[in-house]
Every structure is written in structure tokens, then in C-alpha cells.
């Protein structure tokens, strides 16, 4: 029984200690409620509003950029690489042929003059050889020239 008395005494002391702790907590609670502390959240609210506005502006800018990209993609034409290379090759070939044609056309007058001079030289050489081989033809030709020169 002595043990039971000791345990009961200890429990009573613990209950008394617990009641004292509760009294102290109630006093602290009353003191805290009586304190004129009001948290000031205006700076926090301003920061959140500014952040929200920045986010809205960023979203609008991203939507505008996305619309521009989509517009450009819709207008673009997708061509295979070989088709582009073939087109450039044909363009270069056409330009080379066109340039060579212009060069050849510009040389026509010079070619004609060269051909005329060569033909004239060949004819004179031919007649010279002919007159050397047949002197009587040469005499007839000189007589004809004199008659023509008198007219």
C-alpha cells in the first residue's frame, strides 16, 4: 500500500503541476490577445500585384510572339533541299548560256570582217594563180579592163 500512496502522491503533484502550466498558458494567451499587433501586409500585397502584372505582361508578349511565329510558319513554303539546289543549278546554267550567247553575238561583226578579208585574199590568190597558168586569159582580162575603163 505504501507504493500505492506514493504513486497517488506523485500523480497529485503531476496534476497540480499540469494545472499550474495551464494557468500560465491562459495568462500568456490573454496577454497575446490584448497586444495591439496587427500584421501589415500592404508591402506583400503590392509585391504580389506587381508580380501578377509582370506575369500578365510576359504572357501577353509570349502570345504575341507565338502568333507571329505561327503566322510566319503558315506563310512559309517547305521545299526539299534537292529542289532548291536544282533551281540554283539551272539558274547558273541559264546565266552562263545567256552570257556566252551575248559574247558570241558581239563578235559576229569581227568574224564577218575576218571572213570577208580571207575570202578576198583567197579570190585574189586564186585569180593570180589562174592568170599565171594561162597567160592568154590574163591578156584578155587586161583588154576587157581597158575597154571598161574607157566607158
Written account of the structure:
The structure is a single chain. The chain has 151 residues and is mostly helical. The chain contains 5 helices and no strands. The chain has helices at 2-34, 42-75, 81-106, 108-133, 135-150. It is rod-shaped. The termini are far apart. 0% of the residues are buried.
Give a concise summary:
The protein has 151 residues and is mainly alpha-helical. It has helices at 2-34, 42-75, 81-106, 108-133, 135-150.
Count every helix, treating DSSP H or I runs of 4 or more residues as helices.
5
How many β-strand stretches?
A: 0
Rg (C-alpha, Å) = 60 Å
H/E element string?
HHHHH
Helix vs. strand class:
mainly alpha
Kindly report the average pLDDT value.
89
Terminal-residue CA separation: 182 Å
Low-confidence stretches: none
Helix content: over 70%
What is the percentage of strand-forming residues?
Answer: under 5%
The major beta sheet can be summarized as: none
Shape: rod-shaped
Note the topology.
Blueprint: H1 2-34, H2 42-75, H3 81-106, H4 108-133, H5 135-150
Labels describing this entry:
151 residues, mainly alpha
Amino acid at each position: 500500500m505504501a507504493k500505492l500512496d506514493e504513486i497517488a502522491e506523485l500523480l497529485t503533484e503531476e496534476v497540480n503541476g499540469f494545472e499550474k502550466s495551464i494557468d500560465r498558458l491562459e495568462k500568456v494567451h490573454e496577454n497575446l490577445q490584448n497586444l495591439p499587433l496587427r500584421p501589415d501586409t500592404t508591402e506583400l500585397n503590392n509585391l504580389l500585384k506587381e508580380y501578377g502584372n509582370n506575369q500578365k505582361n510576359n504572357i501577353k508578349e509570349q502570345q504575341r510572339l507565338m502568333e507571329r511565329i505561327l503566322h510566319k510558319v503558315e506563310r512559309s513554303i517547305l521545299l526539299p533541299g534537292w529542289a532548291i539546289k536544282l533551281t540554283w543549278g539551272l539558274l547558273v546554267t541559264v546565266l552562263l548560256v545567256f552570257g556566252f550567247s551575248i559574247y558570241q553575238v558581239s563578235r559576229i561583226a569581227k568574224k564577218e570582217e575576218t571572213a570577208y578579208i580571207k575570202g578576198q585574199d583567197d579570190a585574189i590568190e586564186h585569180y593570180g594563180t589562174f592568170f599565171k597558168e594561162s597567160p592568154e586569159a590574163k591578156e584578155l582580162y587586161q583588154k576587157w579592163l581597158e575597154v571598161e575603163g574607157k566607158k
